[in-house]
User: What shape does this take?
Amino acid sequence: NILPPLPLSASYEGTFAYYTIRDRLPAILSKIADTVFRKKNETGEEGREDLKSIVGRISKLRNELQTDKPLIQIEDTRSDTDVWNQELHRREIRAEAPPSWFKSPWLYVECYMYRRVEEAVKMSKILTTMDVFEELKQSSFLDSQAATINLMMFLLETVKKLQKDASHQDLYKLFQCFVQVSLWGNKCDLSISGGSDNAQTSPLIEQLHLLEDNIIIDDIAQVWQCLQDAKSKSGQPGRVDIVLDNAGFECITDLCLAEFLLSANIASSIHFHLKAMPWFVSDLTQSDWDWTIQKLCSSNNLAMSKFGSKWKQLVKNGSWVLHADDFWTMPFSYSEMSHFAPELYKQLGTSSIVFLKGDLNYRKLVGDLNWDTTTPFEVSLQGFHPAPLCSLRTLKADVVVGLKPGRAKEIATKEKDWMVTGNWAVISFCSKVC
Ligand code: F6P
Ligand code: MG
Assistant: This one.
């Protein structure tokens, strides 16, 4: 019964958490203030007052962060406000001091920052639904246009092949391909670059084989087996859940994976989990979803418009289901889900597999603790196991588990900052509770 390790935190100078709190988060806040300020000519007098108030709140937040002030209560009246404030109180009592930016766990304070950004918006008079990251997300989607066309044409050909022959002999290869597409789609995240230069500009399909060596844990065969077993057990394919991450090209890669799973009769329905508010710069909200589908529908490209209307239809007829539980934008690790969101936990339990996309989901899976890299994945989950799980994540934070002894050192000789550049990835599967 060894105690779990400590949470990552900016209190450890020189770590990626420290650098994130010191440099990356203030840069993100400055960018938000700039974006909001630039909107002043787009609204009337009342709107201008709101913009001023938002910029003021963001600047104050930035100052609190940079001077390591204690975290304070959230003032708005969202459905999650009480939970945030209770959690702040709980931490204060436990540590006998209020949490602060550089001393408390990184995951907690980073989530808190995005919640305070939302508070700044929610406290305005008329601009209460503004998404301060909307422009960034939309331009990243538009900048990935060529790669999107290339991928969706490939999807179109694949679906045609499957219509002719559903038990296609290359099914496993195709499955592997679409899972890898969704995996590497996670490189396109705006928070790592502070919101610039992170569109997918080259065709991904052609690069997959070159990227294979950079998948440092590859449980794809087990993921495939899990889906096959679910199918043979009940005589038909089951529900698949995808906990989505970023808007833009990554979202397209996830929708392509979902389309493939249905078309190949590997899944009967896909349940997507979105964010209930703007989150970690590029995460997908319901309005990003609507905008994306609309863009696809109105595209001149055949594959884009075809799938755009098909996917709209799949949502209408219930084959694709969208959920946006508040839990995904809370600061908790997933081992706390059964306590804070029992209904969501129960729902996930009806799935044959839950895919979790991206870095933040991974950090929450493993509790953002400083695990030894050889810790088994199922141990790091600390009891979180609603259903079989598969993390598809490119590494952008310095925590990873499930590696063989010596492997971390070996990768470090190839790239010093391998844990945070997004150049390395894991397909980590877990089918058992530990
Ligand atoms: O800044 C923290 C962080 O979790 C990084 O580690 C990562 O760059 C980003 O936020 C989120 O990445 P993703 O969109 O893959 O969850
Ligand atoms: Mg994200």
